[in-house]
Description:
Layout: H1 7-15, E1 26-29, H2 41-64, E2 71-74, H3 75-81, H4 84-87, E3 89-90, E4 103-106, E5 111-114, H5 119-128, H6 137-149, H7 153-162, E6 167-169, E7 183-187, E8 206-210, H8 215-225, E9 229-234, H9 242-248, E10 253-256, H10 262-272, E11 277-280, H11 294-300, E12 305-310, H12 325-331, H13 334-337, H14 352-375, E13 378-384, H15 385-394, E14 414-419, E15 422-427
Parallel strand pairs: 1-2, 8-9, 8-11, 9-10, 11-12, 12-13
Antiparallel strand pairs: 3-15, 4-5, 5-6, 7-13, 14-15
Helix pairs in contact: 1-2, 2-14, 8-14, 14-15
Amino acid sequence: MTETENAAVAHxxxxxxxxxxxxxxxxxxxxxxxxxxxxxxxxxxxxxVGAASLAAAExxxxxxGVPVPAVRVHEGAVATAFVSxxxxxxxxxxxxxxxxxxxxxxxxxxxxxxxxxxxxxRERLLRALGIADTGRDxxxxxxxxxxxxxxxxxxxxxxxHAADGLAVAVAAExxxxxxxxxxxxxxxxxxxxxxxxxxxxAEGVRVLxxxxxxxxxxxxxxxxxxxxxxxxxxxxxxREDEDAHADTGQGKRSTLLxxxxxxxxxxxxxxxxxxxxxVTAYRPGALDRHGLSPDALLARRPGLIVAQLCAWGWSxxxxxxxxxxxxxxxxxxxxxxxxxxxxRPGALPAQALDHGTxxxxxxxxxxxxxxxxxxxxxxxxRFSLAGTAAWLTHGIVPTPVHTGTDDYDPEAWLTDTxxxxxxxxxxxxPIGYEGAPATWRRxxxxxxxxxxxWA
Length: 455
């Protein structure tokens, strides 16, 4: 593995505060030109999984007092996991990726990208544009197309945003590299928390998972794979797509709490009192009114690791806006870079900002656990999809494609698991270090079906 080929994982590892010498222990098994794109998506994907794998190997070695296991990541497993939602089958049934009203639309002076996968986002989009919801998708597609074609892209963006909907004008060129890949802050006050020897790096670690959709759940799914007790917490009225949870809920449990009620508030505080990690994926400040700002959490639980992610970065005029991977691709110029020959905006071959940020966040948590063993300090970690987009567009150098022993076949990286949802055919985890688990210890439970307690 040449220095250039390991440059992306070395950059990520340094951003996470890892020891430089450990990067030489990371290698990859090629699978050909997987995740083909004008941008170096393959390099981003394998680097983020490589960083998570190395962080897991480091923590496992520290717990057991042994050398750091070799890290060997298979690009075939990475490519399959980065589109895990597309490979998911529930009793043989596929899951739709995007709703009819989500996608690229021509405006009067360019293009916009909408996101209407969730019912409340669909309702806000239509209301903002004065379109009555007939419930007939084909009619609505035609009405939406006609309405958007009559308006400038920026006007559409701001009109829909004002109604708390989701539409972004497609940027004509890449955004400047203004957002960091990760922001880390040490918060003194806790006591050292040595972790006992274990067969898995995160064995015995308790994680409160306050995330939704893809990026955050990929991070916590990875921590669950590595032995953590992960409890996802959602508000009862903010439903998650069941198919999405079947994909990203592997290894976890899921409960519902209304933090505005005294009873559920007390239940959350009891969980927090024994938690090691809290992961959130809401807009900056969205959870503060519930006493869930990082500083408030760390004051009540010294030594806690608080990891946050958002869409558009933690500062700037867009920081408080809602966003999804597809919208960040549009707003940062990625969709223009990936445009088709006829000028229509394009997309990356995976929701790579989501998945890549998820693996980076998991790596950061594992690194924080390694450091906390001796200093006891809490950690505040911040990621954004925009930060990962900036790294992809400005910070990663393409590397040669290496073919493995076989041509890439995603079937080699799929497995079957019985679950509460039915028989799942799903991607295996791509984490690769010597002795890494081949799959999760438990299948996903149904969304919101578990009690609010630790296992």
